[in-house]
Amino acid sequence: MAAQLHGTLDMIILRTLLRGPAHGHGITRLIQQTSDDVLRVDHGSLYPALHRLEKQGWIDSKWEDTDRGRQMRFYRLTRAGKKQLEVEESNWNELAQAIARILRPVEE
Length: 108
Prior knowledge:
Elements: H1 8-17, E1 22-23, H2 24-34, H3 43-56, E2 59-65, E3 71-77, H4 79-103
Helix pairs in contact: 1-4
């Protein structure tokens, strides 16, 4: 099976939610912070991905009250999502190794 770049955002979101439940803005902030400001996910990409992951059963969501008295939707990784994350990370590692082989200097 050939590894693909498609779904990288999904893997990043699943990995971020492995830390614990988070709302949309919190997910984008964690991705940005964890990547040392290299990765930035805009809301136009994040929310379709969250809906797609929820439809797959890899995350679920629930409206909850916050400390500020507002309601926010919090997303959580499901058991199926943890299994899918393992698959995604395995595929990503395979892809990264293949790219590393291509980037090695050519021996003369």
